[in-house]
Amino acid sequence: MCGIAAVLDTGKKSAGEILAHLELMNRLQRHRGPDGEGYWVEEKLGVGMGHVRLSIIDIERGQQPMSSGLGTVVSYNGEIYNYKELRAELSEYQFKTQSDTEVILAAYEKWGTECLARLRGMFAFSIWDSKQQRLFVARDRFGIKPLYYTSVGSAIYLASEAKALLPFLPEISINPTALAEYLKFQFVLGEKTLIEGITEIPPAHYLTIYKGNITTQKYWEIYYDIEHQNTDSYFIESVRERVADSVEMHLRSDAPVGAYISGGRDSAIISTVAKRYNASMPGFTGRFGEGPAFDESSYARDLASKQNIDLKEVEITSEDFIDNIRKVIFHLDFPVAGPGAFPQFMVSKLASNHCKVVLGGQGGDELFGGYARYLIAYFEQCIKGAIEGTLNNGNFIVTYESIIGNLGALREYVPLLKKFWSEGLFESIDKRYFKLIDRSGGLDEFIHFKEIESSAPEEAFSSVFWGNNVGHASYFDLMTHFDFKTLLPALLQVEDRMSMAHGLEARVPFLDHPLVELSASIPSSSKFKDGKLKRVLREAFDAQLPDSIAGRRDKMGFPVPLDQWAQHDIKDFLHDTFGSQCAQERGWYNANSVLNNIENESRYSRALWGVLSLELWCQEIQDKSCELRKLSKG
User: Fold this and answer.
1) Going by fewer Cβ within 10 Å, which terminus of the chain is more open, N or C?
2) How far apart are CA 28 and CA 164, in angstroms?
């Protein structure tokens, strides 16, 4: 729900100036909150907050910014799912609404910054504390809800979306280190962004801003405290119970709730459990008409039939791509995580016509080990260990013999296997995993890497991969933890932006911190037994799913037929994009090489998608920066 904005200026701008800036930020984020807007300004202190509202809880009385009447004011985006339980615990506070927003105020009044440990949900908020003369800003544990800031002169600006900060920057330039990482991974590591001067507040962190000084503090971390004393059956039953509890909490809403149904296991689990508590819940899916390689709708229909879910479908076309892809890139703030954002934009548009809240399955792969690359990397290291005689050194949770029976899951990944094993075979696990997630293959003919690489992405990768929360005993946990820290935030960015573009709130029940902490306590030997991907989750729920989904060996991930469209349907669009004067003058890549690649009918690879989305982002954000800065002065 909602979009938030804040200004804190030690130079003490006038109330009119602060209000004008907040109004501009609200305007650029209005899609996040189509149901209303509000402002609060304290001129003497040079502070103000803005808010655009998507009404989900206490629809009539939950307007923001909200004041406690005790010297604190909050602007908040998200949902606190345990707000009813916290409200009962905070009975001494004089509540005026039934909203979860007021529960945050009450929790802060009682516990201060320690309130964050008690919040169960997705959130980004700023609280002005008049007693301590400071701004307290926090983001949820996993980065489900976004929050950015920039410091310009004597002023600090915060907003839910980076685009709302652009008008206040003296110039808009690309961060070369972030650009190098994007071209390698199709996401950026850490708190930096593609725009110099705009910082993303990291997940599980809070800021305190006092007299213009910013202090950053981490308040939560995932630790792999493995409970070896518990049995497989204990973990399977515990996962089943925690998922059910999380889904029930995530269904709390005063507005209609639906569910994404992709045809994959994770969304099927969430939808199946949610149906127990919400009998009228509709489901939403999308498909392409270019053949079975781009259509999972039959699986979605199987689930809908088994669970008696009213399934709404949308067929997505190349015309939809041409009409909407610039909107997709604009709403994303920054290009990330592959072309799946486009179909998600279209399915979210469909869902927004029927409900205000939608549940999704994001997070299951990273928590329980669902990506085929885990099996690829682990199998190679097992072979290496067998040859070197090191299989018994503690790093290997399963043997290569036990994995063999599950290698059929890699049938769709033969091209990746050929590329992966063509060089560097049997290197260390970090170097091999880097090669598996490196998306820059094929870009050498387009990108002038020497012009942009100010530091090696490999070094930044290693610092995250060898995180001290995992220990080095489990290859499997090292890989899943890296994705949890890097890929998952990029996917959550897509989840948030593509839904909020249509005034729709996306909720992700797998990312409930009690469930996440449980998953981190499960031995990887249970999660990955015999080389079965997502094995604990399968054992917990497959019996409740249609056979077609429970027995799936492929993993499509909403593929987009861009390679087919590029040769015909969207060819003119691509030529217009890369043939523009701006594209021709970028300097860090050769637009003509991209056009030649299309003319030669090369496959429209994910790498080429990376260039297209980045060019569209430059056109929609960087090239229009002058217009945005004019707005801030008008």
Assistant:
1) C
2) 5
pTM more than 0.90:
yes
- Distance between CA 355 and CA 349 in Å, rounded? 10
396 sits in which H/E element: none
Say if CB 56 and CB 357 are below 8 A apart: yes
Q: Tell me, what amino acid is at 125? A: F
Q: Is 2 a catalytic residue?
A: yes
Q: Which residue has the tokens 């109004």?
A: 23
DSSP string, 414-452: HHHHHHHTTSSTT--HHHHHHHHH---TT-TTTB-HHHH
Beta-bridge partner residues of 505? 357
Which residue among 2, 115, 382, 618 is the active-site one? 2
d(CA 514, CA 509): 11
pLDDT digits (tens, 9 = 90+) for 202-221: 999 999 999 889 999 999 99
**Which tens digit of pLDDT belongs to each residue from 40-87?**
999 888 999 999 999 999 888 999 999 998 999 999 999 999 999 999
CA distance 239 to 254: 28
Which amino acid appears at position 555 of this protein? K
HSE of 288, CA atoms in CB hemisphere, 13 A: 23
Q: For residue 545, give every residue at least 6 positions away whose Cβ sits within 8 Å of its Cβ, in sequence order, or none.
A: 265, 268, 269, 272, 303, 306
Helix, strand counts (H, E) of the chain? 28, 17
Please state, in angstroms and rounded to a whole number, the distance separating the CA atoms of residues 222 and 219. Answer: 11
Residue in the block written with tokens 């499997």: 476
Q: Tell me the sheet residues that pair with 41.
A: 48
Q: Are 345 and 497 in contact (CB under 8 A)?
A: no
Distance CA 105, CA 113 (A): 11
